[in-house]
Design brief:
Length: 184
């Protein structure tokens, strides 16, 4: 990173944890060198408000990896906006230690975001950076390139059905509710 990163103590992470960058996903993750444990979601006892501020300031929109050498139509690139609810398979995120909203509240929130995207008021990436419950929020929701068999089936089917530049309507998976934008 080009800008200096403040001490990890300002991140809100518990003692012994640090933030690293995944080479394969080009996303930050949480690592504890003493235990060898790595997590995509913040560890227990994280001050999520401090972490949210720290991550949005120092780990947002990391550099975008180049396209793979040959896509042959088998790989696509997409971004998404995920809103989780209390019945999601992992009801926590980088923003909230415990998500308590109902499915109905999550759907209503996502429909509001969809309306703003379709009206042109904001892009999916702009909203994802602040509102998505996925760690990809730090990259404007960018998931990079992926092929079939990598994502959840409902997500994958919707993403592969889109043309580059198109945004899906609401897609439900066990993770929560998504809006997906195919970017390549």
């Amino acid at each position: 990173m080009s800008s200096p990163v403040p001490p990890i103590s300002e991140s809100g992470l518990p003692e012994g944890w640090e933030i690293r960058q995944s080479r394969s996903r080009n996303l930050p993750y949480y690592h504890n060198p003493a235990t060898g444990e790595s997590l995509w979601e913040p560890p227990a006892n994280t001050d999520t408000e401090k972490l949210k501020t720290y991550m949005s300031k120092y780990h947002s929109k990391a550099s975008v990896p180049p396209a793979p050498p040959s896509t042959n139509g088998e790989k696509i690139r997409a971004s998404h906006l995920l809103i989780k609810h209390k019945d999601s398979r992992r009801p926590s995120s980088w923003k909230e230690k415990e998500i308590t909203r109902t499915k109905e509240e999550a759907l209503s929130t996502l429909l509001g975001h969809e309306a703003r995207i379709r009206s042109g008021a904001m892009s999916l990436g702009e909203i994802a950076t602040k509102e998505s419950d996925c760690s990809s929020a730090r990259k404007g929701g960018d998931l990079g390139y992926f092929e079939r068999g990598v994502m959840q089936k409902e997500f994958e089917d919707a993403a592969f059905a889109l043309k580059p530049g198109e945004v899906s309507h609401v897609v439900e998976t066990s993770s929560g509710y998504h809006l997906i934008e195919r970017t390549a």
